Structures are given as structure tokens and as C-alpha cells.
Amino acid sequence: MRVCEATRERIRELCAERKMTEYMLIYNAGMPPSTVKSIISGRSKNPGILNIKRITEGLGVSLREFYDSDMFEDLEQED
């Protein structure tokens, strides 16, 4: 799994745990809908740490909690 795929899956996982829709996340994070949707859909290959930070705030978790997942253990080398 690549970093962008793991990031996307982790966002989906945390949304599901919190029973949060994509639109609730967009509202809570205070981000443009197109930015969040491109990250979740996989169109964005490099979402940037600032966007991830805003998403984690919208989810109510820290960056440390976000990346504290087995999904980020054995990532493929990026091109």
C-alpha cells in the first residue's frame, strides 16, 4: 500500500468509527469540499501535511493518533 492509499483508508476508517459522513468531515475541518473529496477519492496523490492536520482536527484526533495505525507500517516505496 502507498502512503496516499493508507491515508485515504485511515480517513475512511476514522469517519466510520465516528459515524461521520464526508460532509460532516468537510464542515468540521473547515476545508473546501473539493480538497477533501480529492483526498478521499484518491485524485490527490500528495495531500500535504497541512491538509492532513486540518482533517485530523475535523476528526477530533491528533496527528500522532492518525498515523498510529498498522496501515502505515509496511508502505511501498513512492516513485
The fraction of residues assigned to DSSP E strands is: under 5%
H/E series, N to C?
Answer: HHHHH
Major β-sheet profile: none
Rg of Cα set: 12 Å
Low-confidence stretches: none
Category from helices, strands and their pairing: mainly alpha
Mean pLDDT: 93
Distance between the termini: 13 Å
Spatial shape: globular
Number of helices: 5
Number of strands: 0
What report would you give on this structure?
This protein has 79 residues and is an all-alpha fold. The chain is 61% helix and 0% strand. The chain is built from five helices and no strands. The chain has helices at residues 3-17, 22-29, 33-41, 49-59, 63-67. It is globular, with a radius of gyration of 12 Å. It starts with a helix and ends in a 12-residue tail after the last helix. The model has no long low-confidence stretch (mean pLDDT 93). Residues 11-66 form the HTH cro/C1-type domain. Pfam families: HTH_3 (PF01381). This is Helix-turn-helix transcriptional regulator.
Write the layout of secondary structure elements.
Elements: H1 3-17, H2 22-29, H3 33-41, H4 49-59, H5 63-67
Helix pairs in contact: 2-4
Fill in the keyword field for this structure.
mainly alpha; 5 helices
How would you summarize this macromolecular structure in one to three sentences?
This protein is mainly α. The chain has five helices and no strands. The chain is globular.
